[in-house]
Amino acid sequence: MSMIIVRNLTKTLSDGTEILSNISFQVDPGEFVVILGASGSGKSTLLKCLFLQERWTKGQLIYDGADLSGARWTDKLKLRKEWAFLEEKPALNPRRSAFKNVVGGRFFHLPVWRKLTGTVSTDEHVLAMDYLEKVGLLDKAHSPVEKLSGGEQQRVAIARALAKGAKVILADEPTKGLDPESAHRVLQDFRNLCKNEQIIVLCCMQNLDMAERNATRIWGLQRGRLVLDIAARRLTMREKEMIF
Q1: Closest C-alpha to 21, from 36, 10, 12, 13
Q2: Is 23 helix (H, G, I), strand (E, B) or coil?
Q3: What's the CA angle centered on 25, arms 7 and 33, to 5 degrees?
Q4: Which residues of the chain have pLDDT under 70?
Q5: CA angle at 190 for the pair 108 and 68, rounded to the nearest 5°
Q6: What is the rounded CA–CA span in Å between residue 242 and residue 219?
Q7: Closest C-alpha to 19, from 224, 222, 204, 172
Q8: How far is CA 153 from CA 13, 40, 158, 185, in A?
Q9: Rounded CA gap, 122 and 4, in Å?
Q10: What is the dihedral of CA 123, 198, 205, 241, to 10 degrees?
Q11: Sheet holding 18-27: strands in order across?
Q12: Which of 128, 90, 137, 138 is nearest to 107 (CA)?
C-alpha cells in the first residue's frame, strides 16, 4: 500500500516570511488525519503544496516510493489519477444528477470512444451506484446536485473521488457552513472509508470537538510549524494552547 512521506517541507515568500517551516511526517494507508490550526496557520497552503498546486522552497514529497519534489508533469499526472482535492464548496456540476457527477470521476478510466459518446457501461453504472451507497446517498442518485443539501453535496464529492480511484483525499474545510449533523456524517464517511478502503484522508478544519471525535490522528499547525502530532483523543489545555 502507498504511504506519504514528507521531509522538511518549507515554503518561504520573497520577503522572507515562512508560510510553512520544516514540516516532516509519514502517513500510512487507513489513516484519517485532521489538521487543526487557526486561520493563517498554513493548513490550506500545506494541502495545496502536497497536491502540487503550489510550489515550496525546499523539502521532499515522497509517494508510493517515488520522489515527487520536482513536480514534473508526469508527477502531476500520477497525483491527478490517485489523489483528490475536496474544497469547502464541492466542484460538482449542479445541474447534473449525483450519479452523473460520480460517473464523471471515472474519466481517466474510460476508453476514448466512451469519453466521446458519453455512454456509461453496466460496470461503470454499478460502480458509481456502489460508491453513492457507501456515502448513504443511493436514494439521491438521480437528484440534481443543486437540489441537495451542503452535506449531501460533500458526500457526492467523496463518492466521485472514490469512483475516480483516489487513494488519497485532501479535504480543505469540508464541513465549514454545515449543520452539526451533516458535518458529523461527512467526517464519519471519511473515517469509515479509511478503515474499510484503506485510503488516506488529510482534512483541514478548525472544529476541535469534531476532530477529537472522528479523526484517527490529529496534527496541530501554528504559524506554519507542525507543533502537534498525536493519535486522536481529547486534547489537554496545554495542547490546545499550542495550536490556537
Answers
A1: 10
A2: strand
A3: 145
A4: 1, 71, 107-120
A5: 50
A6: 11
A7: 224
A8: 35, 26, 9, 12
A9: 34
A10: 180
A11: 18-27, 4-12, 58-63, 66-67
A12: 128
Residue 73, C-alpha cell as written in the block: 508533469
* Count, residues in the chain: 244
Could you report the per-residue pLDDT of 225-243, keeping only the tens digit for each? 999 999 999 999 999 999 9
| DSSP structural state of residue 204 | E
3-state helix, strand, coil in the chain (%, to 5): 40, 25, 35
User: Amino acid identity, residue 127?
Assistant: L
**Predicted confidence (pLDDT) per residue in 89-130, tens digit:** 898 999 999 999 998 887 655 555 455 556 667 878 888 999
Residue environment code for 68-106, b if the CB has 16+ CB neighbours within 10 A, otherwise e: bbebeeebeebbeebbbbbbbebebeeeebbbbbbbbbb
Whole-model pTM? 0.91
Q: Which CATH architecture describes the domain 4-243?
A: 3-Layer(aba) Sandwich (3.40)
Nearest to 180 by CA among 213, 136, 210, 211: 210
Indicate the residue type of 92: L
Question: In the structure grid, which three cell numbers stand for residue 243, read together?
Answer: 495550536
Grid cell 478510466 — which residue?
109
Closest to 174 (Cα-Cα) out of 155, 161, 191: 155
Written as one letter, the residue type at 156 is V
From CA 162, how far away is CA 131, in angstroms rounded?
7
The amino acid present at 180, given as its one-letter code, is P
All three cell numbers of 145: 446536485
**Grid coordinates 482534512 are at which residue?**
203
